[in-house]
Amino acid sequence: MKITIIGNGQIGGAILHLLEESQKIKEEKYLIEIYDKDLTKNISGKTLNECLKDSDFIFLCLPSWHLDKTLKEIALDTKKEAILVPLSKGIDANSSESVDQLIEKNAKNTSYALLSGPMFAGEIMTDKMSFAVLATKNKGAFKKVNNLFLGTKLKLEYSKKVHSVAISAVLKNVYTLAVSIIDSSLEDNNTKGYFSAKGIMEMREIMKILKLDKKIILGTAGLGDFFATVSSQYSQNRKVGGDISLHGTTSLQSEGLISLSPLIKIIGKKYKKLPMLCMLERIVIEKKDAKTEINDFLKRI
């Protein structure tokens, strides 16, 4: 059996670390390849096609803005029986498609399972516990991927609500961005707590608007991941929020930042009924002053 990891960044390295600790990998001596388009990170020196050849599992450890292009590149070299496991948590800015929609468009006949939850690479690499929902329409795919992590400190839950899990992951990143801007602007835990609660309520309302399973928001791939992300030193969304709060803009990228505009687009006119999301739009897209917008929001309560 063969596993290919595409993307040798922090999360790609963390997945490799977990697999190397797996009882099943050790017992059955799986071949693991890791590929990165950055030649300095592409340790094996192999091409993407060579790494993909005969792979049974393909972990896509990429930000969402690279996913569409990568899926197109690997489509012809992915065998029909392979299982794709994306770790991206965003919406494509060009097509406004979520991760599951991108896969179903580019790899129509391939099984896939979304991996989503509180699993920061920095903690995985220091052998701390991590948790995720593995969302797939194919229960057999869940069992196969879950077996890869037996004996590791990653614990997986099954869900068949694939699109709901994909959108939940987007929402936790967008609202982490909002709470991080508020946290950096006011340094007030009471207000941060209030806005966190409002954010959870709005996330549930968005799921309702999009006719998705709003219970997902209160689970591991929603609330669990949200709380981990708003508090973690490893969170890129938190760093971006702090940057925007201090400077009004940022040169950094994050899933929450990239997903904000397409999220508003897919919600449609009803987003105007979501005050916290509208405030985030004014701060991030319209470049309004964060402290002024937050104080105006609080005055209207």
Summarize the structure.
With 301 residues, the chain is of the alpha/beta class.
The quaternary state of the protein chains shown equals: single chain
Quick one: CATH superfamily of the largest domain? NAD(P)-binding Rossmann-like Domain
Number of domains: 2
Provide the CATH architecture of the largest domain: 3-Layer(aba) Sandwich
Our measurement of the CA-to-CA distance between the termini, rounded to an integer number of angstroms, reads 58 Å
Biggest beta sheet attributes: 5 strands, parallel
Label the overall shape: globular
Give, in order, the helices and strands.
Answer: EHHEHEHEHEEHEHEHHHHHHH
Across the major sheet, the strand order is 2-1-3-4-5
Total count of strands: 8
CATH class of the largest domain: Alpha Beta
Mean pLDDT: 95
Structural class: alpha/beta
Question: What share of the residues does DSSP label as strand, in percent?
Answer: 5-15%
The gyration radius over C-alpha positions equals: 19 Å
CATH domain topology of the largest domain: Rossmann fold
Supply the number of helical segments.
Answer: 14
> Helix share of residues?
40-55%
SSE blueprint:
Layout: E1 2-6, H1 10-21, H2 23-28, E2 31-35, H3 48-52, E3 57-60, H4 67-74, E4 83-86, H5 99-106, E5 111-112, E6 114-116, H6 121-124, E7 130-135, H7 139-148, E8 154-159, H8 162-186, H9 189-209, H10 220-231, H11 236-247, H12 255-267, H13 275-284, H14 290-299
Parallel strand pairs: 1-2, 1-3, 3-4, 4-5, 7-8
Antiparallel strand pairs: 6-7
Helix pairs in contact: 4-5, 8-9, 8-10, 8-11, 8-12, 13-14
